[in-house]
Amino acid sequence: MPENVELVNKYGEPLRYDRNFQGPRQRDRSCTDVPCLILFVLFLCGWAFIAHYAIRMGDLNKLMAPTDMYNQKCGIDSSVLDKEYLFFFNLDQCIDPLVPITGCKTPQVCVKSCPTQTFVWDKMKNNNFEDLKSRLICKTDEDKAAISSKSDIERAIQDNRCARYYIKSQPFLKRCMFEFSDQVCEFLPSVLLRTRRDSKWLLPGNASQVEELQLQAMALTMQTGLQAQARMAPQTVSKQAPVEDQVGQCRRQQLNGAVIREKMMQTDTRLAKMVGNLVAHFYNGTHDAQRLGEEIVEDLVNSMTVVLMALLFTLIASLVFISLMRWLAAPILWFSIIGVLVGLLLAIYYSFKQYSFWNKTPTVPLHDLNLHKQWQNLLQDPKMWLYLSISVCVCFVVIFLLVIVLRKRIRIAIALTKEGSKAVSSVISTVFFPIFSWVLYIGAIGFAIGVGLYLGSIGPLSFRMVQRLNDAGEVTNEPCVCGGPAINYTVGAACDPKVFQQNCHINQRRDSCIQTTCSFVEIDNPPLVRWAMGYNVFGFLWLSFFISAFSDMVLAATFARWYWTFKKRDVPYFTLTHAFCQTALYHLGTLAFGSLILAICRLIRLVLEYIDAKLKKYDNTVTRAILCCMRCFFWLLETFLRFLNKNAYIMCAIHGKNFCSSAKDAFNLLMRNFLRVVTLDKVTDFLFFLSKLLLTAGAGVSTYYFLDNNPSVIQLNHKAVPTTVVVIGSFLITSVFFGVYSMAVDTLFLCFLEDCERNDGTPEKPYFMSKQLMKILGKKNKLPQRQRRSK
């Protein structure tokens, strides 16, 4: 047989036989879709220019300026121009994962500077009045000015008009955050060394000190940079310890790393507080929720080693499972299909049984309107059981007939799944390649968010003269009169805060307006900046789809080369590296073309969502119906384009053609084998779902069994906590593994279809598929014995 023989396939395409043939077009490649690559590079350069302009012209301080409880921007609005920092009455209430949604409930006021010393009313109430009043931080200056005695202070604190306590703080993003100093230790003997669990140690009337001064204990750990608990463990500090010893121990704790590490294993941490606040939204009782949050955090810390080991074993098990799938794919799939059919038969039996029972048992419907009663009415309705049994019967018949008709194609899908297992096992580095894509994704997300924030801060601030609402939600009627440069200022009109502060007053004594302010509305972005924001959004969409496309093509090129290597043991060791370089050198333009199409489609969908949100207030049935149809259409279009793009990348990896030619070839090839495509897609999806479910459930059950049967190794409050973490982590790990596996099967499927159409098993055109696939299709290679494939 000559080294190279000119041949054509049944479509008249030239084909050159080579003993070292590695695919229809693995050599002599040229760059594809170069104009699209140039456009993409120019687009990225424009994006970089916008980023440079945004960073140079933007000011994040405009966005970071805090807002107090009266919706005033500290240091920006007229009434708080000289108060740049935000003070929290009880910062502990802001340690809640739902704060971005529900907001922080504690009073928040703008102050000129963060507290430079600690104040605790219950400890300092015996100090002189002037000193106490100077230390007070109240909601408004009027509340503080109205205080004339210690009884007034007590009353203001009880009414939550002034803060009961605070500690030395430092500004962080113009928010006053805790700063620990040695002075705080003076308060620890009677308060901070005891928690809510130990509140019985306090004298009557002082129990509130525990809750109030917990933040001071937390400040102790924030200064060290560790989330350690502030309370002393019973074995570390006893109830009878002298005050001086406790204070000394508090100060030594700052320098004793071993003690701090030990405290990290305890529960009263800021993380525990956050979890407790989260649980409080779903669990009855604040105290019980806090206790549960502490126990959850304690379990997480104590079981960290077990969780990491379980995830490591899951990773190893996933690798082993993929390797074993070449033998277990058929049993697992057929067992699953039979199990589904048996389950449907049981559902049919149960539905008919319930129908027969309720049809013979007259009942009176429950008339309550609650959901539980309505559900009971539904379960007692014989018609519901009749319709359900008919539906299940139809499903059973359809699935049973499909299995009978498509049994041969199911066998092909199983064989390709086994081939995918061989491919992934042969090039095991592909399993970890998605990490590279994740890093790029994170970088793209961070860049887009950063550019968006800087762009959003460009432009002058817009202010409006407004009147506050009182506690009843009514508009105040303060007689605020403006003169001089502000003579034209009216409520609802634009204003300047400095001019307003200097020229607007409520009486002849020129007292400043209190209930009427010149408040910040928004940053008035110039039109060009708004276009730049749209450019930034589209850039993120294009870049994210490009990253996904690059990952798909690298994997496709890797698995295609594995398939088109006649002797699989001869697959090069650096196949993934070769595929990476091949994609980066020749096909970036194709990736830019495909990702551009998807980015445009996604942008249209985002615009439709924006239009829908704007039109909701008009409540027009016609417009809602039109928008709903358009959204549905573009969703279907994007789903189809994703499918087409993925197969186009595979064809480009095989043949080295441009995007349009690859998409056309892939579409025609798939349409010529439509039933095989549908069968393979659904069968493999079902098989991969079962595999992920099996591995995830196995990891969770094994972890729970280990924790339940080894209490001496690790003691936990709730075994479900580490088990849940393991289940979530295992599902993510298996999803990554089987995502690569799915790409392998899709690539091998197209290669298989190419192989069937291009080759006929003769010595000039041998099949590259496995012997099992040839056996299923009734094909074989007519090669001399010495050239036959060794399996």
Describe, in plain words, how this protein is organized in 3D.
Pfam families: Choline_transpo. By secondary structure, the protein is mainly α. Among the domains are: 183 residues, no CATH class; 36 residues, no CATH class; 65 residues, no CATH class. The protein is 60% helix and 6% strand. It contains 28 helices and 12 strands. The strands form 6 sheets. The protein has a two-stranded antiparallel sheet with strand order 1-2. The radius of gyration is 35 Å and the shape is globular. The N terminus and C terminus are likely disordered.
Topology readout:
Blueprint: E1 5-8, E2 14-17, H1 34-57, H2 60-64, E3 85-88, H3 99-102, E4 108-111, E5 119-120, H4 121-124, H5 129-135, H6 141-145, H7 150-158, E6 165-166, E7 169-172, E8 175-178, H8 188-192, H9 208-212, H10 214-224, H11 243-253, H12 257-263, H13 270-280, H14 286-302, H15 304-360, H16 371-379, H17 382-405, H18 407-426, H19 434-456, E9 461-467, E10 481-482, H20 497-503, E11 504-505, E12 516-523, H21 527-563, H22 575-586, H23 588-615, H24 621-655, H25 659-671, H26 674-709, H27 720-758, H28 771-777
Antiparallel strand pairs: 1-2, 3-4, 5-6, 7-8, 9-12, 10-11
Helix pairs in contact: 1-19, 1-21, 1-23, 13-14, 15-17, 15-18, 15-26, 15-27, 18-26, 18-27, 18-28, 19-21, 21-22, 21-23, 21-24, 21-27, 23-24, 24-25, 24-27, 26-27
InterPro entries: Choline_transptr-like
Keywords: Glycoprotein, Membrane, Transmembrane, Transmembrane helix
Subcellular location: Cell membrane; Membrane
